[in-house]
């Protein structure tokens, strides 16, 4: 499906609540969505296919309804681009350069169906084509990562306290590379690592946006992605990683941008700034 980004007067402005209000509210929306996801996870998942043959479950739709309702009440003048609404043809009009939300209510639906725990709830704020705030929550483990670009990132496990996280310096013996559990093509990755003179000492497979968070908290160093992704797949993890000191760039070194005409991403590399 080819999505179109609408445009209205670029001088129109939107006043958002404070960053702390946005972060706390989005944390609460993600937590409520996660509780509903886990309720469904314990029973019949309601698996079916969308028009593009990708799977969707009752949990995708239920979680999205919770998050979208919360965001529209919190910021009524800010468009919400949400995966399942987009799949249903409900495409919002975006303001040129204006803020909008990107929501992937259940990233890693294939992992959810496999019941391996590697799925996440993702909420991101985009401003001027860049992610500025991100929330990633793994419902199965109860781990939550948050980031405000320019202000830092933190993490909470279960009911514990939030603790700051940061990317690590590149290890002297080689990088730890993340790869998608369901989509990685290792021959392509190996060719790319060699062509960029990067030494990989270890690999970590993970589903969903967890790969961004592993780099953000210093457990891995780089995640090249050479397959198709949409903006809602990457925005929240991108914000967390950048807030923690990392970056997400295209293969020609430009920052991965958002609000593209089709909401589809080019190939990209998520990494700590030392991993190059």
Describe this structure in words.
With 276 residues, this protein is α+β, with helices and mostly antiparallel strands. It folds into two domains: 19-164, 2-Layer Sandwich (Fructose-1,6-Bisphosphatase, Chain A, domain 1); 175-272, D-Maltodextrin-Binding Protein, domain 2 (3-Layer(aba) Sandwich). The protein has helices spanning 19-41, 58-74, 83-87, 109-114, 186-195, 210-216, 231-243; strands spanning 48-49, 55-56, 80-82, 100-107, 120-127, 130-138, 143-148, 152-157, 163-165, 175-180, 200-206, 222-225, 229-230, 246-250, 264-265, 268-272. Strands 3-4-5-6-7-8-9 form a seven-stranded mixed β-sheet, sandwiched between helices. The longest helix is centred in the N-terminal third of the chain and has 23 residues, at 19-41. The radius of gyration is 18 Å and the shape is globular.
């Amino acid at each position: 499906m080819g999505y179109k980004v609408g445009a209205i007067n670029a001088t129109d402005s939107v006043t958002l609540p404070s960053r702390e209000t946005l972060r706390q509210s989005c944390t609460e929306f993600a937590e409520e969505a996660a509780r509903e996801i886990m309720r469904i996870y314990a029973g019949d998942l309601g698996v079916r296919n969308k028009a593009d043959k990708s799977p969707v479950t009752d949990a995708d739709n239920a979680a999205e309804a919770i998050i979208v309702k919360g965001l529209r009440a919190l910021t009524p003048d800010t468009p919400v681009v949400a995966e399942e609404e987009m799949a249903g043809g409900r495409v919002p009009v975006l303001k040129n350069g204006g803020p909008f939300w990107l929501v992937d209510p259940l990233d890693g639906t294939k992992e959810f169906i496999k019941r391996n725990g590697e799925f996440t709830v993702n909420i991101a704020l985009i401003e001027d084509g860049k992610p500025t705030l991100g929330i990633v929550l793994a419902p199965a483990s109860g781990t939550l990562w948050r980031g405000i670009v320019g202000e830092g990132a933190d993490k909470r496990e279960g009911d514990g306290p939030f603790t700051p996280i940061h990317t690590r310096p590149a290890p002297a013996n080689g990088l730890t590379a993340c790869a998608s559990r369901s989509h990685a093509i290792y021959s392509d990755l190996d060719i790319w690592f060699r062509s960029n003179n990067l030494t990989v000492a270890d690999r970590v497979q993970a589903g969903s946006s967890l790969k961004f968070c592993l780099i953000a908290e210093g457990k891995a160093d780089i995640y090249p992605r050479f397959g198709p992704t949409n903006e809602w797949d990457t925005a929240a993890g991108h914000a967390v990683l950048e807030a923690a000191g990392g970056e997400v760039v295209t293969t020609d070194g430009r920052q991965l941008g958002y609000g593209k005409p089709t909401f589809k991403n080019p190939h990209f590399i998520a990494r700590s700034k030392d991993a190059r």
